[in-house]
Design goal:
Blueprint: E1 2-4, E2 6-7, H1 13-21, E3 24-31, E4 34-42, H2 43-53, E5 58-62, E6 68-78, E7 85-92, E8 98-108, E9 117-120, E10 124-130, E11 138-141, E12 150-152, E13 163-164, E14 171-176, H3 181-197
Parallel strand pairs: 1-5, 3-7, 8-11
Antiparallel strand pairs: 2-4, 3-4, 5-6, 6-7, 8-10, 9-14, 10-13, 12-14
């Protein structure tokens, strides 16, 4: 995907407010060989990028002078009281550059589990990779789990171009036995006995 951006001539809160009223987002592009440059993005187009590519979106930007560069979303600042993006930080990428990021873990196949209580204990994986191998998410199948089973980071399949930085022994999903009604009844019975004793 490619987005057209324009250099911001004015910065500051009042200029940012005017930009938002024009359905623009304030952003900064920076990088190893790029001087930090304040720019404006089309808010609707940027929303579409996030929907299609996720929070670690990598895409091209085209400047008004015709220069293009590949960037990755590094930070998104949102308004505290409403779900509105206020500012975006974009890192310009150089060829072969390694990136460190967190990627969401998604459990698949939970609807096939016949018994037990499934708990996801890790929601993101920290990885190092280059721009060509950035995933939108990692999936781990839980449909063959039995009560007492634990899936760890080591069970997640990743592409050859990705190095996982999270501890491979860290638990991702646990299938526990459901709480029994007997235990609840015993507790209620104990409480009733205490009241009688009092």
């Amino acid at each position: 995907m490619k987005l057209q951006v324009e250099k911001r001539e004015k910065v500051g809160s009042s200029a940012a407010k005017r930009a938002r009223s024009d359905k623009k987002l304030t952003a900064v592009i920076y990088g190893k060989d790029v001087e930090a440059t304040p720019v404006l993005l089309d808010a609707k187009e940027f929303d579409e990028v996030l929907k299609q590519l996720g929070k670690n979106a990598i895409f091209e930007v085209s400047m008004s002078d015709g220069k293009t560069m590949q960037v990755i979303v590094k930070d998104i600042q949102q308004a505290a009281l409403k779900n509105q993006i206020q500012n975006v930080a974009l890192q310009a990428l150089t060829k072969g550059q390694k990136l460190t990021m967190t990627v969401a873990i998604h459990l698949v196949g939970s609807e096939d589990l016949k018994e037990g209580v499934l708990a996801q204990t890790l929601n993101e994986l920290e990885i190092e990779t280059d721009a060509a191998h950035v995933p939108t998410e990692f999936q781990i199948a839980v449909n063959e789990m039995n009560i007492g089973d634990t899936l760890t980071v080591a069970d997640i399949k990743v592409d050859a171009g990705i190095s996982v930085l999270t501890d491979p022994e860290a638990a991702v999903a646990i299938l526990a036995a459901p709480a029994t009604e007997t235990a609840d009844e015993d507790e209620a019975s104990a409480e009733a006995t205490e009241k009688v004793a009092e």
